[in-house]
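>> received
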Amino acid sequence: TVGTLQVEPGIVIEQAPSAGARVRAGEAAISITVSARPGEERAPPRVPVITAQPEETPAPPPPTPRPGPQPTPGPAGAAPTPRPTPEVVAGNVRRTRVQIIVPEGGVREVRIVVIDETGVHTVYREQHAPGDRVDQTVRSQGYTIIQVYIGNQLVQEIRP
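>> returned
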């Protein structure tokens, strides 16, 4: 119920920015309000609710030179040959905040798997009851796919 207006559950009743507004990805927060039956506000959803938000990652520190051979003296009056300076290169590290609301249907395992340049990694695995909220910040490197499984079933792939 919104004021005196009766609205069927599951209908978007408010949103910002307004319908039809153009926004650039990552530049504006988007919020929606969805109607619910009185008393159902805390009921677990019928299907999983999954959101993912990329987080700002601090700039990597400048490359760090490693010790190497000393400069080689050249002929008299010539500048010495500079020593090689291999660099420690930090890859394209990403942080993504993944939030999940576990759906109805009993206690099940929630698993978050990251596929990135370093391989395939399970970064979260725990049992949850319906209505539980999972909030995890996932780190990955380079091109990334984040998979969310509930009860051994893939329910969403995220490509941040």
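>> The longest strand covers residues 119-128.
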